[in-house]
Each structure stands twice: as structure tokens, then as C-alpha cells.
């Protein structure tokens, strides 16, 4: 596992950009369980059926509402850049999935200020792109 500490709130989106330059990904936005219906940021849409996707965060009695899969494109990344400051208030996690796979590749957890990247082989690629990654969990995590 690779860890990216996101102290300034922008590294998660940089990870999305860098990873999607190499491989195509879908992303899923999960809200907090108590988020109001319709709280999804455009272009995300609430999932009408809970696809059997591996989640990153969990809650005792309920799963957070999640969006449908949305392809990572320059346009969707651009929308996310516009809403950087809002995400932590209502977003539980943003998860990247390789196309047609149900296991996550990377996830941003804003309230933890951490990006998790499953494939350690991406370390050199991310480092070369200016994303500081670590094989060690952050102390406070």
C-alpha cells in the first residue's frame, strides 16, 4: 500500500490526474451516511442499485450512499478542481476503480487527509510526477 498525506487538500486530485494519465479509471463518490438525498455533485449521480464494489470506509449499520461509476476524464477532473474546498464537508471518500473491476485501486478519504494507493509498483511513476508517496502509514493514521 502507498500513502499520500494530503495536508493541503489538493494531492488527492493530483493523484487522480496522474493515475488516469497511465490507465483508464472509473471513480465513485461516496457521501456520509447522513448526507441528504441529491447531495451528489454534478456530474455524479446517485447509484440506483448498489453495485457490489469494494468500499474503503464502512459504518456499523449502514453503507454510505455512493454514486454510479463515472469515467475519469479531463472534464470530470476539472469539475472536481472547482469544488476542492467543498469536498471535505460532505464527501466520505472518492474511490478509483480500474474499468470493469470491483476492487479499488486508489481512494481519497478527506476527513483523514489521506490517499491510499493499492499498487506499490506505481511509486516511481507517482514520484516522477511530483506526488510524494510513502510505503509507511502516517503517524497520526
Short note summarizing the structure:
With 141 residues, this protein is α+β, with helices and mostly antiparallel strands. Helices cover 24% and strands 21% of the residues.
Explain how this protein is built:
- The radius of gyration is 14 Å and the shape is globular.
- By secondary structure, the protein is of the alpha+beta class.
- The chain has a six-stranded antiparallel beta sheet.
- Helices cover 24% and strands 21% of the residues.
- The mean pLDDT is 87.
- It has four helices and six strands.
- It has one domain (2-48, 62-128).
- The relative contact order is 0.30.
Basic shape? globular
Major beta-sheet overview? 6 strands, antiparallel
Tell me the series of helices and strands, N- to C-terminal: EHEEHHEEEH
Question: Mean pLDDT across all residues, rounded?
Answer: 87
- Counted beta strands: 6
Number of domains: 1
Distance between the termini: 14 Å
Q: How many helices in DSSP terms?
A: 4
Helical content stands at: 10-25%
Structural class: alpha+beta
From the structure provided, what is the oligomeric state, counting identical versus distinct chains? single chain
What attributes characterize this protein structure?
alpha+beta
Would you spell out the secondary-structure blueprint of this structure?
Layout: E1 2-5, H1 11-22, E2 25-31, E3 70-71, H2 74-82, H3 84-90, E4 91-98, E5 106-109, E6 114-117, H4 123-128
Antiparallel strand pairs: 1-6, 2-3, 2-4, 4-5, 5-6
Amino acid at each position: 500500500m502507498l500513502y499520500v498525506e494530503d495536508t493541503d487538500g489538493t494531492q488527492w486530485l493530483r493523484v487522480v490526474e496522474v493515475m488516469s494519465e497511465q490507465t483508464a479509471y472509473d471513480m465513485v463518490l461516496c457521501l456520509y451516511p447522513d448526507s441528504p438525498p441529491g447531495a451528489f455533485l454534478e456530474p455524479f449521480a446517485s447509484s440506483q442499485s448498489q453495485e457490489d464494489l469494494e468500499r474503503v470506509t464502512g459504518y456499523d449499520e449502514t453503507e454510505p450512499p455512493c454514486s454510479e461509476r463515472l469515467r475519469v476524464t479531463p472534464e470530470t477532473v476539472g469539475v472536481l478542481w472547482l469544488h476542492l474546498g467543498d469536498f471535505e464537508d460532505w464527501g466520505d471518500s472518492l474511490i478509483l476503480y480500474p474499468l470493469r473491476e470491483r476492487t479499488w485501486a486508489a481512494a481519497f478519504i478527506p476527513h483523514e487527509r489521506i490517499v491510499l494507493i493499492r499498487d506499490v509498483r506505481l511509486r516511481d511513476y507517482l514520484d516522477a510526477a511530483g506526488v510524494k508517496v510513502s510505503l509507511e502509514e502516517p503517524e497520526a493514521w
